[in-house]
Structures are given as C-alpha cells and as structure tokens.
Amino acid sequence: MSPHWNRLREGSPLYGCFLSTGYPVNTELAARAGFDYVIIDLEHGMGSERDVLSQVHAISALPCAPVVRTESHDRPRVHRLLDLGVQGVMFPRVNTAAEAAACVAAMRYQPEGERGVATLVRASDYGASFTEYRDNSAHSLLTILQIETAEAVANVDAIAAVEGADVLYVGPMDLTTSMGIFRQYEHPAFLDALNKTVAACRRYQRAAGILLPAPGVARHYLDLGFSFLTCGTDTAFLLNGARAVNDGMRSA
Q: Residue 34: exposed, middle, or buried by beta-carbon count in 10 A (0-12, 13-18, 19+)?
C-alpha cells in the first residue's frame, strides 16, 4: 500500500500529475520530480493498457504511487489494471450513486465487491502474498470517482455516501462544458459546484480532488478544501520546456 493514501485519509494534501504518452521514461522522470502520485491516462492519453505495466515498473523503487484513469467503468478491465499492481483507479464521469457503487465493487473482492480472483498476479507478488493483499486491498487501493457533469453535481451527496468512494475528483473542463460555461472557473455556478462537492466530501469523510489549470492556484484550491491536487501532464511538460528553450535561443 502506498503510505500516501494514509496521509490523504488523515487530511494531508497530495500532489500529482497526469501521464499521457504511455512512455515509461516519462513516468520515471515525473516520479523523480517528487510527485506523490502519477495518473496514467487511458481515457485521453496515447498509451494503451499494454503500456501500463512498463510504467508501473519504472517507478516501483520510487515513493510515487501509480494510479490509472480507465476509459470506462468496465469491470474486467479494472481487474486487469489492479492485477498489474496499480495502487488506485480513477473512474471518469461517475454521475449517480449506482455508478459509484459499481466502480467501488470493481475494486473489491467478494463478498464486498465483484473483483475476480487470480492469485498468480504481480499485485500479490505472483501469489506469494495473495492472502495479505486480498485482506488489505479494500484499504490499500484508492478509488477515485470523477465529478464531471451537472448531473454528478446534483447527485454528489449520494455519490459521496457510497462506502469505498475515497476521492471525489472534479474535472473542471468537462464540468464547465456540461454546465455551458466552458473554462469559466470563476463563474458562480462552477464555484457553487465546487462548494457542493467539498461539502459532500466533508460530510462523508472523503477527499476532494481537482485538476488545476496552473500550479500557482494550488493554495486557492487547498483553501477551498481540496487535498488531492493534480497539475500538468508529460506532454505539456515536454512541449513547454522545448518551447522555452527554442524561444530562449531565438530571442538571444
């Protein structure tokens, strides 16, 4: 289990980034930069499920937790990711309590959930520690549910009430698009949605997460009550760094 998840549940903030290229060297570089976690993005990223294992291997000796954003709520695909040894799964567009419950069930073994049982998998040291892994998995794995639509905001209290919903994570671009106020992050309706999400998380002792538009606004969102903060992706890091070098040479 990542020690970071205990810190998060105790109220300490965690900081991470997205990974979109599917390239393990980029994953290692992000971990070496000091992020608490990285989110390997299978929803919008260029990598595939086949690329996940090499990325998990790349940071296995570093204090950075591998999380994967899956492209759907499909239960068998979640099992495959967990069996590889990822320490958290982010589920996009969770709109109802029923969907939230199904996501949590995919993370947990029977009788609490619906995760299929296989012992000879990487997550359990290929069977050597399966019993310990199984018994601790409900606590050691992080379930992250994305709040990305107006419907989700309307149901956010019921979603937060679902046992096992560790993090309610706001996707600002999808949410503002759903609300008809794309990227208007100071709009009263968006701010109200943030407050409702944080209030629901506090009521049920969940962590609130969000994707930041820039690192400099982290303090603002911490003050609002968010503690699972993500900013940037490997594609942006490379592009912005390359642009800065190119512009620097040409302006000199």
A: exposed
**Over the stretch 113-123, which tens digit does the pLDDT of each residue have?**
999 999 999 99
Over residues 48-102, the pLDDT tens digits come to 999 999 999 999 999 999 999 999 999 999 999 999 999 999 999 999 999 999 9
Confidence check: pLDDT of 43 > 70: yes
CATH superfamily of 3-251: Phosphoenolpyruvate-binding domains (3.20.20.60)
CA distances from 32 to 75, 150, 208, 234 (A): 32, 37, 25, 13
Question: Tokens 């999808």 identify what position?
Answer: 174
Number of residues written out for the chain: 252
Average pLDDT, the chain: 97
**pLDDT(35) > 70:** yes
Q: Where are the domains of the chain?
A: 3-251
| CB proximity list for 151: less than 8 A, separation 6 or greater | 95, 96, 178
Selected catalytic residue, list 4, 44, 73, 220 = 44
Our answer to whether residue 44 is catalytic in this structure is: yes
Distance CA 122, CA 50 (A): 14
List the one residue out of 122, 123, 180, 119 whose CA is nearest residue 150. Answer: 180
Contacts 24+ apart (CB under 8 A), 227-231: 227/8, 227/11, 227/12, 227/13, 227/14, 228/8, 228/13, 228/14, 228/16, 228/144, 228/167, 228/169, 229/13, 229/14, 229/15, 229/16, 230/15, 230/16, 230/17, 230/18, 230/39, 231/15, 231/17
State if pTM tops 0.90. yes
